[in-house]
């Protein structure tokens, strides 16, 4: 190949295009793990919710017999609701074609509803479609609905699956004594169950905060003042009607806004989801570390390859993938929180593009949860390794010994002047074994009962209330 041909090849002019491909791995490689979110946080999911809001607003207005209308029959109401309940590919295609002309997504939704009203023989209420609404009335309610449903029906249940698995493992390993490491150094023993329980406890607390969060929407017109509404029907209590409508959708009502709902509930939610992601990231790195030091072994998956060149390897890829996806999700969630909290004066459009990435952020978070759930099911505790590690670090009993000496001094049964310094001289920078500590304790100026307690102690039994603390998980 000539240099000119190579250059042409490099700039793409001679390279044939691939068939249409997903740009994001969430829509390609990882589609199966995140598909539940697409029902809500995709463009089609958003448009379905927009149709739902428009239809329900029509029903609300006719239920009040406004502008000479009468409440719709049960049959007509059901046929109207079918517009969003049976929303599918034909509506997706119709909207795509219409938006190519309107260049406005919400206006295309209005035209779709009007078109379907005509098909249903309900032209008499067509002028009430999108009545007195600004696009953000529809959007704020639609985003609140889609995010609420995605969180409550897909993301939060997956988080609770991970929490449930951690609780199960905590109970299973509640008595599995292990050497702790603080600052990476041997420290007072715990149990693996209690350590996993810490993550379950932390995540449960944040999950409860997320579960109790608000999903706010506004429905007050172009600048949040109900001006157009009052011009058309000054006798109607529009704030009360709007509140009833929004709450009827299962959302919380924001009465004081600009053109947009201020997005503060979204900021709160994304910060909490990011917080949960930070805890999960901590879990992933800790489990990875426990695997690396042999505390957990990985259960081989038939047919799986750990390394392309080293046949013996089983890589902890579930936890590594979770770690990476949590970092991506955290970055996106932080951007959402930072961007959505502001809007220039009564409205700018920065939130329009930003909110279209909500699904991407939750997608990476959900993918991480899926990896963690799978990974936690593919590890086995190597209790022999835990016990060997404990038996090689008898110096961790120095804390217990010096604390018992201090108690004996306080009780008047010892004349030792500085128990901490005494144990520091014995153990700091030194490896001591069972016999060394036994000889040391035997020679201490303390009561016989205290000596017996200390002589009976081993690193594997020096785990305090670790096992009982697992009961706090409920």
TrEMBL record:
Pfam families in alphabetical order: ASL_C, Lyase_1
Residues in Adenylosuccinate lyase PurB C-terminal domain copies: 343-462
Lineage, opening ranks: Bacteria, Bacillati, Actinomycetota, Actinomycetes, Micrococcales
Superkingdom of this protein's organism: Bacteria
Entry's EC annotation: 4.3.2.2
GO molecular function list: N6-(1,2-dicarboxyethyl)AMP AMP-lyase (fumarate-forming) activity
Pathway(s) where this gene product acts: Purine metabolism; AMP biosynthesis via de novo pathway; AMP from IMP: step 2/2; Purine metabolism; IMP biosynthesis via de novo pathway; 5-amino-1-(5-phospho-D-ribosyl)imidazole-4-carboxamide from 5-amino-1-(5-phospho-D-ribosyl)imidazole-4-carboxylate: step 2/2
The species this protein was found in: Microbacterium terrae
Enzyme class at the top of the EC tree: lyase
Protein keywords: Lyase, Purine biosynthesis
NCBIfam families in the cross-refs: PRK09285.1 (NF006764)
Name this protein carries in UniProt: Adenylosuccinate lyase
Fumarate lyase N-terminal domain: residues covered: 73-322
Job of this protein: Catalyzes two reactions in de novo purine nucleotide biosynthesis. Catalyzes the breakdown of 5-aminoimidazole- (N-succinylocarboxamide) ribotide (SAICAR or 2-[5-amino-1-(5-phospho-beta-D-ribosyl)imidazole-4-carboxamido]succinate) to 5-aminoimidazole-4-carboxamide ribotide (AICAR or 5-amino-1-(5-phospho-beta-D-ribosyl)imidazole-4-carboxamide) and fumarate, and of adenylosuccinate (ADS or N(6)-(1,2-dicarboxyethyl)-AMP) to adenosine monophosphate (AMP) and fumarate.
Record region (Disordered): 1-21
GO biological process, one term: IMP biosynthetic process
Biased composition regions of type Basic and acidic residues, renumbered to the chain: 1-12
């Amino acid at each position: 190949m000539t240099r000119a041909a190579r250059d042409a090849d490099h700039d793409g002019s001679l390279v044939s295009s691939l068939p249409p491909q997903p740009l994001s791995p969430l829509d390609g490689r990882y589609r199966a793990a995140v598909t539940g979110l697409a029902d809500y946080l995709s463009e089609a999911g958003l448009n379905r919710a927009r149709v739902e809001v428009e239809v329900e607003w029509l029903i609300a207005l006719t239920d009040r017999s406004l502008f000479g209308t009468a409440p719709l029959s049960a049959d007509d109401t059901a046929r109207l609701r079918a517009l969003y309940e049976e929303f599918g590919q034909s509506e997706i295609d119709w909207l795509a074609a219409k938006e190519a002309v309107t260049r406005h997504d919400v206006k295309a939704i209005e035209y779709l509803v009007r078109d379907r009203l005509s098909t249903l023989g309900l032209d008499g209420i067509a002028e009430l479609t999108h009545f007195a609404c600004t696009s953000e009335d529809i959007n704020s309610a639609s985003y609140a609905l889609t995010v609420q449903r995605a969180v409550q029906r897909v993301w939060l249940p997956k988080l609770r699956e991970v929490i449930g698995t951690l609780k199960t493992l905590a109970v299973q390993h509640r008595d599995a004594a292990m050497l702790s490491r603080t600052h990476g150094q041997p420290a007072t023993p715990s149990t693996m169950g209690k350590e996993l329980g810490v993550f379950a406890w932390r995540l449960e607390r944040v999950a409860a905060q997320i579960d109790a969060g608000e999903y706010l929407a506004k429905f007050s017109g172009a600048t949040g003042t109900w001006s157009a509404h009052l011009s058309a029907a000054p006798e109607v209590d529009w704030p009360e009607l709007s509140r009833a409508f929004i709450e009827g959708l299962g959302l919380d009502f924001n009465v004081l806004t600009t053109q947009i709902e201020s997005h503060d509930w979204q900021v709160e939610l994304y910060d909490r989801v990011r917080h949960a992601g930070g805890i999960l990231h901590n879990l992933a790195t800790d489990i990875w570390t426990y695997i690396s030091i042999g505390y957990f072994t990985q259960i081989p998956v038939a047919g799986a390859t750990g390394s392309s060149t080293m046949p013996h390897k089983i890589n902890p890829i579930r936890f590594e993938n979770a770690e990476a996806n949590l970092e991506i999700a955290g970055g996106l969630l932080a951007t959402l929180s930072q961007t959505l909290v502001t809007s220039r004066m009564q409205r700018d459009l920065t939130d329009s593009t930003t909110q279209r990435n909500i699904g991407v952020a939750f997608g990476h978070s959900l993918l991480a949860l899926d990896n963690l759930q799978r990974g936690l099911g593919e590890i086995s505790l190597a209790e022999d390794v835990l016990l060997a590690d404990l038996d090689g670090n008898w110096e961790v009993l120095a804390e217990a010994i010096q604390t018992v000496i201090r108690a004996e001094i306080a009780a008047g049964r010892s004349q030792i002047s500085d128990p901490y310094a005494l144990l520091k001289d014995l153990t700091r920078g030194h490896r001591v074994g069972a016999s060394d500590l036994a000889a040391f304790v035997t020679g201490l100026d303390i009561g016989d009962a205290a000596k017996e307690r200390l002589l009976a102690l081993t690193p594997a039994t020096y785990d305090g209330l670790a096992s009982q603390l697992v009961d706090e998980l409920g």
